[in-house]
Amino acid sequence: MGKREIFGSDRLDAEERRDLNDADFGLPEERAFPMPDAAHVRAAESYFRYAPDSQKAELAQNILRKAAEFGVHVQSPTVLEWAGK
What we know:
Distance between the termini: 36 Å
Shape: globular
Largest sheet: 2 strands, antiparallel
Structural class: mainly alpha
Order of helices and strands: HHEEHHH
Radius of gyration: 12 Å
Number of helices: 5
Number of strands: 2
Strand order of the largest sheet: 1-2
Number of domains: 1
C-alpha cells in the first residue's frame, strides 16, 4: 500500500503521524506541519501564519519542496516571500 493510499484523509491519527519520516514535516526537528500528501501541503500553507517567525523561512522552503513533489501550486504570497521567491 502506497503513502497516498494510507494518508487519503486530511487528518492523521497518532499512528500515521508516528510512521512519517522526518522529511515529511515542514519543521522536521519538531515534527510539526506534516505533509505526506497534497492535502496536507495545502493545510501547511494555510496554517503557515501560526509558525514562529524564526522558523518561517525553513517551513516555507519545505512547503515549496513538498508542493513540487505533489504537484500543488502554492498561492500564498506570504509563503513565497518567506521562501525568497
